[in-house]
Amino acid sequence: MTLRNGIGIISIFLMAVVLHVNAYASDPAGQVLAVKKEVIRIRDNSSENAKPLMQLQMKDAVETKANSRTKLFFSDDSILNMSELSRVEVEEYIYSNESKRSKSVYRLIDGSLQVVVGRSDLEVHTSTAVAAARGTKFIMWSRIAKNGKKIDEETREECIMALEGQVELKLKEELITKDTKKKRLFVNEGDIGCVTAGSLVDIRPAGSADRAEWTSKFPTLYSSIPTVTAPAAFAPVAVIGADFPTPPDMGQEPETPNTSPVTVEIVHPQ
Please, which residues bridge with residue 32 across strands? Predict the structure, then answer.
């Protein structure tokens, strides 16, 4: 093979890789499932108000404003619930149709997330930590203020509270030195693990105050995507109140029962 032919083959291969990556990057990774108040989707330095059924691609970011929340649903059945004043970026999302599993990486830039891990190897990255999980449920937060008081950036607190299963919490590679004593922790259900000032802190049980503080940030957020089901000829028809339409069957986590008034209409054959 001549040098010219070899260079030509390499060029074609690199072009194919670039085209594949570009095509993949434009594929939808998930969608916005529900929105409360002001939520923004950022793509390619442009932003617009998020709304149900809006698609999410790799490198998209989602931001919630004050008193706002959103629920994001991904192709592997993973769900990200974002509390107010939070920002998350879809950093990497690779889905395999063959295995029906994915590898997903999300960057929590600020705020907090409640994560329900679906059929994926899922990671959430912050400025200092990585949370890695499979088939679990956890809350992760990154903040520079506590009890209303500003904390120095150097003492930013980044923690996870495992709600189900086990979550691995590890330091970012660039923060590990020869003097680092702990590189990773395994946080089990009911425990909290944190990274503070670039160092891992020992695991501790989540107290009642911890649970109250963080679970209160993620009250049930019903899907605002309406569903319409044609009634059977002899079946009762349940009409759900307009305030809380029935969420679509999309693998989201169990939600509290709908307490909206229900009217039952009996349909008789003609």
Answer: 72
Tokens 């009250």, residue? 219
Q: What Cα–Cα distance (Å) separates residue 232 from each residue in 136, 227, 263?
A: 38, 16, 17
What 3-state class would DSSP assign to 198? Answer: coil
CATH 2.60.120.1440 for the 29-215 domain, yes or no? yes
Q: With pLDDT > 70 as the criterion, what percentage of the chain qualifies? A: 68
Report the predicted TM-score, pTM, of the whole model to 2 decimal places: 0.71
With a cut of 50, say whether residue 235 has pLDDT above it: no
Q: Give the residue range(s) of CATH 2.60.120.1440 domains in the chain.
A: 29-215
Summarised one tens digit per residue, pLDDT across range 150-164 is 555 556 789 999 999
Which tokens belong to 153? 């950036």
Which of 56, 73, 77, 62 has the alpha carbon at shortest distance from 111? Answer: 62
